[in-house]
Amino acid sequence: MAASDHGQDASLIGTSVAHFQIVRRLSAGGMGTVYEGIDKTSQHRVAIKVLHQDIAQHRDVTLRFVNEARALNIVHHQNLVRVIHLGKLHESTPYLVMEYLDGVSLGTRLRENEGPLPIRSAIQICLQAASALTATHEKGIIHRDIKPDNIMVMANADGTPAVKVFDFGIAKLPPEHMSTELTFLRTQSGQLLGTPFYMAPEQCTADAQITDKVDVYALGTVLFRCLAGRTPFISAARGDAAMMHVCAQQIADPPPLLSEFLPTAPSALVALLDRALAKDPKLRPSMRELQQQLKRLLESDAQRAPEPQGLLEQAASLERKKSGPSGSVDRLHKAPRSRLRWPYIFSAVLALWFGVLLLWALLQ
User: Could you give all domains of the chain from N- to C-terminal order, each with its CATH number?
Assistant: First the structure.
């Protein structure tokens, strides 16, 4: 979105909100703009998220801003983005000041990677996200919109991924923290909350009695996406039709096994994802159990492999070699080798038959 699309975008650069100076624009979307800022007291970099003025007129949207700040202030965890300040511009346009994250979203990384992530990296990322969500669940907070675009990935000094979960705008908070007005608006609207490709079956039916198991399903889908190169359910349709098609699959169709796309995946990982994607939320593990199982996979791999490259990485490396330089093969449509021979055999028989006919014609 260009700066000219919203008059406030260009005018805010160089100005101050509270004790933060706005330095430059980082990104913009349909809802608002994110700027880089400087805390004039500590000189620390911050991210300042400002709603567009026209969007800010919608009460439910501004309430989501408040909801996000409340959710992140209830739980303090190293894998959750930290909210520093909540305020308003000109008494009408809300803004949110958060810690500055020097990284890219998992969604961007997956789109740029053009293929599955290495198994170890994918588990490391989802393990940290699970740790953050375990903490929020213990406080009675359900995120409801876990997806790659809401997981920020940075790098530690040793090169391992460092993760931050963010965007709690549609999170379900405990009654004592939830805005009564926002609860009423959601109840009255009857709209689906979340992203269909990552929504649990009960979430797709707008079930008011959802539990923290919807986050388990969503994070399981994120891990599946990282390793298979696609979500369990996809649609060739577009727009609303695609969303409806995917929701219908989430509700009725059994999810594919990870091994259909990644035959070298450890059986324990395949089984864990199958449980996380169970239709019945009671059959899914808790977020804490999912976290523990992912941690166990990493630890057992490290213990078994004295080499720097463990079994998980060896499996991913083997899969990349089998699938060619791009590393992205649609294994659902990859025909067995025996089936690929038949066109050649048929062509040879047909050529021989034409040769016999030609020879017979010449001898007449």
Answer: 11-99 (3.30.200.20), 104-322 (1.10.510.10)
Name the catalytic one among 9, 39, 145, 215. 145
Least Cα distance to 32 among 81, 95, 114, 75 occurs for 95
Going through the chain in order, the beta strands assigned E by DSSP cover: 16-17, 20-28, 32-39, 45-51, 83-89, 93-99, 104-105, 151-155, 161-165
| Rounded Cα–Cα distance for residues 3 and 304 (Å) | 53
Count of CB atoms situated within 10 Å of the CB of 45: 14
145 is catalytic: yes
- Please give the Cα distance from 188 to 87 (Å, whole number): 27
Instruction: Note the pTM of the prediction, 2 decimals.
Output: 0.79
Both structure tokens of 121: 């990296």
What are the pLDDT digits (tens) for 180-223? 545 544 444 455 678 999 999 999 987 668 999 999 999 999 99
Report the C-alpha gap between 96 and 70 in whole angstroms: 11
In this structure, how many other beta carbons lie within 10 angstroms of the beta carbon of residue 269? Answer: 22
Q: For residue 143, which of 98, 61, 80, 206 has the smallest C-alpha distance?
A: 80
> For residue range 32-90, what is the model confidence (pLDDT) as tens digits?
899 999 999 999 999 999 988 887 788 877 888 888 888 888 999 999 999 999 998 87
Question: CA 354: distance to chain centroid?
Answer: 57
**Per-residue pLDDT tens over the stretch 34-49:** 999 999 999 999 999 9
Tell me which H or E stretch contains 334: none
- Is pLDDT above 80 for 102? yes
Round the average pLDDT of the chain to a whole number and report it: 82
DSSP codes of every residue in 66-111: HHHHHHHHH---TTBPPEEEEEEETTTEEEEEEE---SEEHHHHHH
Q: What CA–CA distance (Å, rounded) separates 236 from 254?
A: 18
How far, in Å, are 10, 57, 91, 172, 185 from residue 94 at the CA level? Answer: 17, 10, 8, 21, 19
